[in-house]
Design brief:
The chain is built from 11 helices and 5 strands, in the order H-H-H-H-H-H-H-H-H-E-H-E-E-H-E-E. The protein is an alpha+beta fold and about 400 residues long.
Length: about 400
């Protein structure tokens, strides 16, 4: 509501400027038409129109407005017409120029205003009053208005610089995210490629075994063909996911995992559920006490699913190491169900109080990996303190969410 009102005010500048000039109009009319200032009705109309009329364009044409008001005031001085409240338009014009982008024009407007103060002092000061006091008072008013305009100009420039900096940082962050997305897609593609390559290798080995056992041991050949069929379907599903990752254009972000891999070497197989114990042990060696347990009977899973489970636990423990604090402890629990596997990683660290530099994309990386298999991830601070990551991964294609 406030934002829309402010936008409306910005679009209706002349109307708003007239509103701010209206108090001077209300104070001037009674004096002019009541005979207080000794100005005739038509002279009063011309004077009010010349002083307050240009105020409608005060912010649209600030220098022109100030020049017109100053010229009307000079004509008023020449015609020996008394000063009226509407003459405050000179100070309004001075403020507008001082608050503008040009310091030199603001200084020139101040000089014109001080000159007008000297002229008004010489013309309108009586012998009973002190001319020096009147001149100093008018000059102090002009100087105060000018300084207020300079302050507003500095403040606007500062706010503008903050907005530009925020926009620049936002653009840089979007660029970093795009680069990170591409890197994570490439990483997932490499890992799935290794899984598919392994499955194809198994198919070749089983096919060779079936060929040699076809005549002498038909039962063994039949088992080999069944293995080929199951492995082929698995490889085909992983290949589809691999192509989906390569074609996907928008949500992948990198996992910032820093926990070391339990397997070393460029040609080591991709880690899976069996390597979680080694991962937990390495985390303990890094200084984080971890409990690890499972519920249910572990079913047969594709290597891609096992790799996803491993990466989620790895990323969650890495976050605890980085943000949990020096005395945090963690717990990893795997719940095997008939249709899905639930991964729960909790800690008792800082939780919501942990510092965030805004550059981590690990949680989004988890969601990207789980989404490949139709699952979902919930991550956030725990109500009693600490942090939790809960992921659900379907174990069969037909139960994908």
């Amino acid at each position: 509501m406030v934002g829309r009102a402010w936008d409306w005010v910005r679009r209706k500048r002349p109307l708003v400027d007239c509103f701010f000039a209206s108090p001077w109009l209300l104070m001037t009319i009674p004096g002019v038409y009541g005979g207080i200032h000794g100005i005739g009705p038509w002279q009063g109309v011309a004077l009010i129109a010349g002083l307050l009329g240009p105020m409608a364009l005060r912010r649209t044409l600030p220098r022109t407005t100030f020049a017109v008001v100053a010229l009307v005031s000079f004509v008023q001085w020449t015609a020996d017409l008394e000063i009226v409240p509407a003459n405050a338009a000179v100070l309004m014009g001075l403020y507008t120029i001082a608050a503008g982008p040009s310091f030199r024009w603001g200084l020139a407007a101040l000089a014109v205003t001080v000159l007008g103060a000297a002229m008004a002092t010489a013309r309108y000061t009586t012998e009973a009053s002190d001319p020096r006091y009147a001149f100093l008072t008018l000059t102090a008013m002009a100087l105060g208005v000018w300084l207020l305009g300079l302050h507003m100009r500095t403040r606007r420039e500062y706010l503008r610089s903050l907005e530009e900096r925020a926009e620049r940082l936002e653009r840089e962050r979007e660029t970093e995210v795009q680069i990170a997305m591409a890197a994570e897609r490439a990483r997932i593609a490499r890992e799935l490629h290794d899984v598919v390559a392994h499955n194809v290798s198994v198919i070749v080995v089983q096919a060779d075994g079936a060929w040699y056992a076809m005549d002498g041991d038909p039962a063994r050949a039949r088992r080999a063909l069944e293995a080929i069929s199951a492995t082929g379907r698995q490889a085909l599903a992983e290949m589809r996911r691999l192509l989906g990752v390569l074609r996907e254009g928008g949500e992948a972000v990198p996992s910032q995992a820093s926990v070391p891999e339990p397997s070393e070497g460029a040609y080591a197989p991709q880690p899976g559920v069996d390597q979680l114990a080694d991962l937990v042990e390495k985390v303990r060696e890094a200084g984080l006490p971890v409990e690890f347990d499972g519920e249910g009977t572990p079913p047969e899973m594709s290597q891609g699913r096992e790799l996803t489970v491993f990466r989620i636990v790895q990323e969650a423990l890495t976050n605890t190491l980085k943000h949990g604090g020096p005395h945090a402890t963690a717990r990893v629990r795997l719940r095997y169900g008939a249709d899905a596997l639930e991964i729960e990683v909790t800690d008792d660290g800082r939780g919501a109080a942990a510092a965030d530099d805004g550059r981590g994309h690990g949680l989004a990386g988890m969601r990207e990996r789980v989404a490949v298999y139709g699952g979902h991830v919930r991550a956030g601070p725990r109500p009693g303190g600490g942090f939790e990551v809960v992921a659900r991964i379907p174990l069969r294609e037909e139960v994908r969410t």
